[in-house]
């Protein structure tokens, strides 16, 4: 595991000069970043799971996925292929031709009976004429279906990926439990900080903040279905129905009629979401917890993500529901200043600190700080001891910082995107580490180093040293 993180390190760059570029090589290929390797191995693991017999729906999802991948959306408009398919069957195999007609009965008229609708075409001895007849009658119906086809299939592929992720979570409940345990450590530390925070005390909001901080809980990918349980069930019923159709054309049209639930979150990427009061880690993040991690790595790789998401609950949010009645202006200014300063020191492209970025910037500084303190508190005795087998360079404290940076090693993210409320990864990592007081000590950075120079005033978002007033 350490190797995965070690791989991204650029020894040419001094950690005190630019930690992000030291920990995340600039020329690393997209396939060799830690995040990429995790995502890929997660996808493989999921494919394996789908092949297993743990759940009857697994093989169906895979079968359908493969089928949909093979579909050419253009074909759906092409009734000629249906015509040809029927003619061929009519000439060579009457039973198959009859089955195809039954499929269309089922699909279009929702009829199982053999004496309904299309079935009488089987008595026509002129196969060409029967096929023409069939197509004429289908065309009207097909047109509606065809319009939906492409969109529906693309949605389906997204949906099936997410649905597989959901099934994977069900099979890996222990990882959710572990993430909850780690989250409770953060909560415990946060509660102490809230009680001591002067701007909360002076504005009489300690109780409100405590309540809000207590509401957040880690949930699993059930979130996908919690929001649209009915659509998921309907889609599954339709999938079931389509798999019983035997004719290629009817099957194709059948799948095109499936209404697939919207999937806004890609559960196959390393990510997390705060839908207060629900906090959700995507599956690849959870899968990191299944690796053989030291506490430093567990905190750096996963708890840091929980910490960031926790931050979103506490920052003044521009989203629909404002959880916190007010947020300290002094804190806001301090956070933004740090990001502006880091931006000017480390920019590689577009770089500006906008007010719409405060939620993310605040969550970054808050989360980073809380996570490091939580780790330090629980593992203080080993913090600066060398790690066996890596005596010369690794201590748990160092490994924490490398791990936390590794989650943000995306090659494309060295530049801010004006539509993205997050700063570029490079700025995020360097700003947060500049603000963690122990960083300088752990890497022995002197005051003249760029990392230390880039550090603005120490921001105390919560705790006894936080500002007096909001
Ligand atoms: Zn965020």
Describe the structure.
- By secondary structure, the protein is an all-alpha fold.
- It has two domains: 2-49 and 173-223 and 266-453, 3-Layer(aba) Sandwich (Collagenase (Catalytic Domain)), CATH 3.40.390; 52-167 and 227-256, no CATH class.
- The chain is 61% helix and 2% strand.
- The protein contains 21 helices and three strands.
- The protein has a three-stranded mixed β-sheet.
- A hairpin with a 2-residue loop joins strand 2 (272-275) and strand 3 (278-281).
- Helix 5 (79-92) packs across helix 7 (127-171) and helix 7 (127-171) crosses helix 13.
- The radius of gyration is 28 Å and the shape is elongated.
- The model has no long low-confidence stretch (mean pLDDT 84).
- It binds zinc ion.
- It holds the Pfam family Peptidase_M13.
- Residues 290-459 form the Peptidase M13 C-terminal domain.
- InterPro entries: MetalloPept_cat_dom_sf, Peptidase_M13, Peptidase_M13_C.
- This is Peptidase M13 C-terminal domain-containing protein.
- One of its GO terms (molecular function) is metalloendopeptidase activity.
Structural features:
single chain; 470 residues; mainly alpha; Collagenase (Catalytic Domain); 2 domains; 21 helices; 2% strand; binds zinc ion; Peptidase_M13_C; metalloendopeptidase activity; Peptidase M13 C-terminal domain-containing protein
Overall body shape: elongated
What do the pLDDT scores average to? 84
What share of residues is helical? 55-70%
Structural class estimated from helices and strands: mainly alpha
- Spatial strand sequence of the major β-sheet: 1-3-2
CATH level-4 homologous superfamily of the largest domain: Collagenase (Catalytic Domain)
- What ligands does this structure carry? zinc ion
* Count of individual beta strands: 3
Task: List the uncertain runs.
Answer: none
N-to-C CA distance: 43 Å
How many strands, which pairing sense, and closed or not: the largest β-sheet? 3 strands, mixed
Secondary-structure element pattern, one letter each: HHHHHHHHHHEHHHEEHHHHHHHH
- Count of alpha/pi helices: 21
Instruction: Give me the CATH fold name of the largest domain.
Output: Collagenase (Catalytic Domain)
């Amino acid at each position: 595991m350490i190797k995965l993180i070690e791989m991204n390190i650029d020894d040419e760059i001094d950690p005190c000069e630019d930690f992000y570029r030291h920990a995340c090589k600039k020329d690393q290929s997209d396939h060799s970043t830690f995040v990429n390797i995790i995502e890929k191995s997660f996808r493989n693991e999921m494919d394996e799971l789908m092949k297993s017999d743990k759940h009857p729906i697994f093989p169906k999802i895979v079968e359908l996925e493969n089928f949909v991948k093979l579909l050419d959306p253009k074909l759906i408009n092409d009734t000629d292929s249906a015509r040809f398919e029927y003619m061929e069957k009519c000439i060579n195999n009457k039973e198959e031709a009859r089955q195809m007609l039954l499929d269309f009965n089922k699909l279009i008229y929702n009829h199982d009976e053999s004496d309904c609708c299309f079935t009488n075409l089987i008595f026509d001895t002129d196969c060409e004429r029967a096929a023409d007849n069939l197509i004429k009658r289908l065309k009207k119906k097909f047109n509606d279906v065809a319009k939906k086809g492409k969109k529906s299939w693309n949605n389906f592929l997204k949906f099936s990926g997410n649905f597989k992720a959901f099934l994977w979570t069900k099979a890996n409940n222990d990882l959710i439990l572990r993430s909850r345990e780690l989250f409770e450590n953060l909560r415990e530390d946060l509660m102490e900080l809230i009680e001591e925070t002067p701007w909360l005390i002076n504005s009489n909001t300690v109780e409100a903040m405590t309540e809000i901080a207590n509401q957040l809980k880690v949930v699993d990918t059930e979130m996908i279905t919690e929001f649209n349980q009915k659509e998921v069930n309907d889609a599954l019923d339709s999938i079931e129905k389509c798999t019983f159709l035997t004719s290629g054309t009817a099957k194709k049209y059948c799948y095109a009629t499936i209404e697939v639930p919207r999937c806004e979150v890609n559960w196959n990427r390393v990510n997390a979401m705060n839908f207060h009061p629900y906090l959700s880690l995507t599956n690849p993040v959870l899968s990191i917890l299944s690796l053989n991690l030291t506490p430093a790595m567990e905190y750096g790789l996963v708890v840091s993500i929980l910490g960031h998401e926790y931050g979103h609950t506490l920052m003044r949010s521009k989203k629909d529901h404002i959880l916190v009645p007010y947020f300290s202006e002094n804190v806001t200014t301090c956070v933004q200043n740090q990001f502006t300063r880091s931006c000017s020191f480390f920019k590689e492209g577009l770089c500006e600190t906008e007010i719409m970025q405060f939620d993310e910037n605040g969550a970054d500084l808050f989360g980073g700080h809380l996570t490091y303190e939580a780790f330090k508190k629980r593992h203080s005795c080993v913090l600066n001891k060398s790690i066996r087998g890596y005596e010369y360079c690794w201590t748990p404290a160092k490994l924490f910082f490398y791990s936390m940076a590794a989650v943000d090693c995306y090659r494309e993210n060295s530049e801010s995107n004006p539509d993205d409320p997050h700063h570029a990864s490079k700025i995020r990592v360097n700003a947060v580490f500049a603000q963690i007081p122990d960083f300088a000590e752990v890497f022995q950075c002197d005051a003249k180093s760029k990392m230390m120079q880039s550090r603005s005033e120490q921001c105390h978002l919560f705790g006894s040293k936080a500002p007096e007033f909001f």
